[in-house]
Amino acid sequence: xxxxxxxxxxxxxxxxxxxxxxxxxxxxxxxxxxxxxxxxxxxxxxxxxxxxxxxxxxxxxxxxxxxxxxxxxxxxxxxxxxxxxxxxxxxxxxxxxxxxxxxxxxxxxxxxxxxxxxxxxxxxxxxxxxxxxxxxxxxxxxxxxxxxxxxxxxxxxxxxxxxxxxxxxxxxxxxxxxxxxxxxxxxxxxxxxxxxxxxxxxxxxxxxxxxxxxxxxxxxxxxxxxxxxxxxxxxxxxxxxxxxxxxxxxxxxxxxxxxxxxxxxxxxxxxxxxxxxxxxxxxxxxxxxxxxxxxxxxxxxxxxxxxxxxxxxxxxxxxxxxxxxxxxxxxxxxxxxxxxxxxxxxxxxxxxxxxxxxxxxxxxxxxxxxxxxxxxxxxxxxxxxxxxxxxxxxxxxxxxxxxxxxxxxxxxxxxxxxxxxxxxxxxxxxxxxxxxxxxxxxxxxxxxxxxxxxxxxxxxxxxxxxxxxxxxxxxxxxxxxxxxxxxxxxxxxxxxxxxxxxxxxxxxxxxxxxxxxxxxxxxxxxxxxxxxxxxxxxxxxxxxxxxxxxxxxxxxxxxxxxxxxxxxxxxxxxxxxxxxxxxxxxxxxxxxxxxxxxxxxxxxxxxxxxxxxxxxxxxxxxxxxxxxxxxxxxxxxxxxxxxxx
Length: 645
Known about the structure:
Pfam families: Aconitase, Aconitase_C. The chain is α/β, with parallel strands linked by helices.
């Protein structure tokens, strides 16, 4: 049977199930990736499971999110993560090394392998001919313990690329074009595979840009072939022996087809406050900006910074503009310094920040109130920047640099200059990017500061119960709205009791207080529209509301990773059979659940009543038998403990 790249990767790693779209499959995981916003919980989960050493070929723990050390919390967590990496046999990337996704690509990524990461943008490494998937932390912990990763077999969307990108247009515009066509739900339940003659005109890092923001389409993964471009990239890194060719068989089929002629693309921009709100830059040109920001995992390559450097070289940015430069790895930063690009940017008036995620997840660089921020980051969800009422646009480095010069959104094609040419270095030689774990971990102790607490115990869901609807929300509620990132919140990622105080504050300031009043009286339910839980893989967005008594979430549909996180922590996820019933429900309605234990095991559709009203609402679950077992045990930690008895 002729196979595309995605099918080859899945079939090679399939340990259970059949490759039929919608059916649950189990996959062997070769590599894992954790970062500090999610990794502390993963390490605590490994400790709770009694794991001595991870079973994967390579696992890496990166420190890239929580770099601001305004008190002891982040610094303590960095020490804890290093000690856990040494104890469990994990590579460790210290603060300042850079963002997990490009560093992993540089140091460990291998064509033909699977990668599971506790960060939704793990899919970026699909640029290397890998099956790279973002997941909740506990799913990653299970994979590190040697368990398969379970996911419903996705459809494969083949995107045929032809032509070559014109001047002033770059890889960011390719993924923005996909978002313009398909929106933030266009990739749900799918792997997006790019193929065709246009692929050879995209560098490995160009592919990283495109694969990274497959998460914004809601895709399970993004896959590129492993060809000579990937071989050249690995040669740059001194890892040519890790290369293998991996391409689709001639005549391979796809479940869905899309075509993009790269030569026809123009500079694009995503307006506030969704990555799917894409228009041509020319349509919004002239809007005044406060900030222009270059960097993040969505534009992490050498050329992304070098092109901006060449655009502003010998010039000055507009008065009053904050031109923020966020290098994505120490390796990259060294090369940019060596070749004069950092000097060009600083001379033009740029602000230089340390290598890491930084403002992408609201960790500094928050924009001023009521002002526009132009960013090369992957997301512009409400409040993600750190400013509650923000106005963030997503664009390419070319557009960001051009706009920094003019002080307003600018189509880079209108600049009075030739399109700069950027020469990639032939070799990157940075040493010591990853610290290998010791072979003997017998004497390694976990270093826990006072902010690191144990994971709370959760009781299983009862058979009969009534739940008040504490919040009724709209469509596309993101995990940043459920539980914000940023320097106020993320330092408490190892303290569930404290981090829960920030839950849903962007949606309702009173949620925490109201939830605590209900928690000891049976808990509460939430209602929302479509694409609930889009965005980050942070399991805290399920764990914190669970701590506050959340038992059931009823929505029109879920984002993939958040759905699994809800299940992992024993929260029952339900969808409306008739979406019009969403309009009937109001906040503070009380939902009646009866005989739930038996009901969810024998049927996927059942009725719930609204107390005091003559109305019955049919609902549906899409749970496998394994999911149901986890729910009835009160979450995956209880489930694991039960299995070990």
